[in-house]
């Protein structure tokens, strides 16, 4: 076969790349994560009866700011890790800043109250179930995001799995705020962070196995 014939054969049937394919797939995965976590929250735990009242307070919006900011930051990193050759760079700071911020506010709040009140602010009423509930609500999103990663070509498998876990759990925590009655910053700084850390760690452990080419 002549070289020109070979080139013509290889070029036959080539179609343009669909540049929106990744956007559509990550959009669908996020929709599954948000809807799945919200539906599970309503079915398993219910929506807090005074949601309309607390939603009018700045403290409630401060509460959802933690998972919302982590969700956005993790999504930006996820978009880079899912495709080879793209640097994450300063986007990592978007993940660290909300956590460090809530911890700083936690220390500030605790320093301003008597010692006997500090433990009640940290543990609240639901510390035994909070982190577990967040992990459970993360399941739909975690599997949907892992599916997206498997369809593309991540090269940093452990980091990709970890960020998928963080993105799923941040989305789940945002949905969980519809139910959670805790309104103390120290509680969020411990138990919300722990609830998001567990899927992140599981993603890091499972990533090299589940995302292997």
Keywords:
213 residues, mainly alpha, 9 helices, globular, transmembrane helix, NrsF
Overview of this structure, please?
The protein is built from nine helices and no strands. By secondary structure, the chain is mainly α. The two termini are 33 Å apart. The mean pLDDT is 91. The chain crosses the membrane at residues 26-47, 59-78, 90-113, 125-145, 157-176, 188-207.
In short:
This protein has 213 residues and is mostly helical.
Low-confidence stretches: none
Share in helix: over 70%
The H/E string reads HHHHHHHHH
Cα-atom radius of gyration: 21 Å
- Count every helix, treating DSSP H or I runs of 4 or more residues as helices: 9
Rough outline? globular
Q: What value does the average pLDDT take?
A: 91
- Going by helix content, strand content and strand pairing, the class is mainly alpha
- Total E-strand runs: 0
Distance between the termini: 33 Å
Indicate the proportion of strand residues.
under 5%
> Which sheet architecture does the biggest sheet show?
none
Keywords: Membrane, Transmembrane, Transmembrane helix
Transmembrane segments: 26-47, 59-78, 90-113, 125-145, 157-176, 188-207
Organism: Pseudomonas auratipiscis
Protein name: DUF1109 domain-containing protein
């Amino acid at each position: 076969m002549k070289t020109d014939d070979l080139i013509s054969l290889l070029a036959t049937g080539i179609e343009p790349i669909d540049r929106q394919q990744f956007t559509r797939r990550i959009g669908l995965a996020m929709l599954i994560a948000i809807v799945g976590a919200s539906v599970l929250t309503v079915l398993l735990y219910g929506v807090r009866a005074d949601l309309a009242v607390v939603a009018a307070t700045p403290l409630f919006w401060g509460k959802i700011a933690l998972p919302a900011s982590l969700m956005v930051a993790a999504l930006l990193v996820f978009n880079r890790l899912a495709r080879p050759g793209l640097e994450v760079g300063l986007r990592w700071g978007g993940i660290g800043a909300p956590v460090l911020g809530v911890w700083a506010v936690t220390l500030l709040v605790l320093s301003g109250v008597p010692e006997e009140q500090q433990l009640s602010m940290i543990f609240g009423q639901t510390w035994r179930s909070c982190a577990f509930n967040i992990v459970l609500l993360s399941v739909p999103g975690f599997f949907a995001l892992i599916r997206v990663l498997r369809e593309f070509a991540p090269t940093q498998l452990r980091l990709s799995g970890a960020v998928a876990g963080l993105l799923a759990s941040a989305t789940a925590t945002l949905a969980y705020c519809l139910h959670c009655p805790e309104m103390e910053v120290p509680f969020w700084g411990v138990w919300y962070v722990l609830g998001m850390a567990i899927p992140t760690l599981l993603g890091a452990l499972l990533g090299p196995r589940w995302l292997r080419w």
